[in-house]
Design brief:
Length: 333
């Protein structure tokens, strides 16, 4: 960051409007620098040291902004779209004016961790497949995911367009019949807070369908499987919550879920770690092994975890520690 910059440039960067808007604010005497009204919008200030206020409120200058959004289903990961609601629409105007963009995409029917920033260098470091930053997803898939699928993901699968994926890690957390899961959802009402539900419904081990042993093959992925409660409150509550979202949220793939229930099909709750971001990649990887993704949620980008306190549609700034951890990412491989 430059040690000094024009006052109007600093305020425009922080979302106070165009240079003309800022000139008007200055003319009205609404802007002070170190306690004195500013008279020239072109005056130089030192953003780290000088105290700049607008209408008495201190302006915190940040070169870049980093926003963690719990993306809900039904909005697209774009800065603008002629027909669809975008993730930018979930943020206040002052942030929208910063020129934030999403780091990697999540499908309209996917939920979970989306990072938005105006730091292009960091975004590149996190999305370039050569930099080996793993994105971790939890998904409900139709079928019994098993060790053979995990081995296929580790070796790389061939997508419908002939592309062979880089090594990915698949961990099967639990499998069970879809009707039993649907019944558990209606039986338990509101998603549980973790406590109690495992006791009444069975631990992940007891719900595992035959053949769905915890499968994980060596994939070259450096990251370990997240602990079941690292981004939620345990495998079973998480799986129930996903099924409940499917039953209630119109932008998710409800028809495919209802079909699985009607057919008495098995479903599996899985974790997938990939370092690439091809179009519909996780869904197409499962298609390549004959399974359909019913629900998809991103829970981690490298060291960054989706904050369980954020409900779908909610956001917060990254903490300095989270920012620092992300900055350490992006080693070339
Ligand atoms: N893979 C997908 O299929 N969809 C996403 O939104 C992200 C990864």
């Amino acid at each position: 960051m430059k040690p000094s910059m024009r006052l109007d440039k600093m305020l425009a960067h922080e979302g106070y409007g165009t240079r003309n808007d800022i000139r008007r604010l200055v003319r009205k005497g609404a802007v002070t620098v170190n306690g004195r009204p500013a008279s020239d919008p072109g005056m130089h200030v030192r953003p780290r040291e000088d105290e700049v206020r607008v209408h008495g409120r201190a302006v915190a200058y940040r070169e870049f902004r980093y926003i963690m959004l719990h993306k809900p289903a039904g909005v697209v990961s774009a800065t603008e779209d002629a027909r669809e609601r975008t993730v930018l629409g979930l943020l206040p105007d002052v942030l929208r004016r910063r020129g934030l963009f999403p780091v990697g995409r999540l499908d309209k029917d996917a939920e979970g961790l989306l990072l938005l920033t105006d730091d292009g260098k960091m975004a590149h470091g996190l999305t370039s497949p050569r930099k080996a930053v793993y994105k971790i997803y939890r998904a409900l898939v139709r079928g019994v995911a098993d060790a053979a699928d995990a081995e296929a993901f580790a070796a790389g699968v061939t997508l419908d367009d002939g592309y062979r994926t880089m090594p990915a890690r698949l961990t099967v957390l639990a499998s069970m019949p879809a009707p039993a899961l649907a019944e558990a959802v209606s039986h338990y009402g509101e998603p549980p807070d973790g406590e109690g539900i495992s006791g009444g419904f069975g631990t992940p081990e007891t719900v595992a369908a035959p053949g769905a042993e915890r499968a994980q093959a060596k994939s070259g992925a450096r990251e370990e499987t997240l602990s079941p409660d690292e981004t939620g409150d345990g495998t079973v509550p998480e799986m129930l919550r996903a099924a409940r979202r499917l039953a209630e949220e119109p932008f998710l793939n409800r028809s495919a879920w209802e079909e699985a229930v009607r057919d008495g099909a098995a479903v599996s709750w899985v974790e997938v770690a990939i370092r690439e971001g091809k179009f519909h990649q996780v869904k197409r990887m499962f298609e390549a092994v004959g399974k359909k993704v019913l629900y998809l949620r991103r829970v981690a980008i490298g060291p960054l975890r989706l904050d369980p306190a954020l409900a779908p549609g909610e956001w917060r700034e990254l903490t300095p520690e989270e920012e620092e951890a992300l900055r350490g990412q992006g080693r070339e491989t």
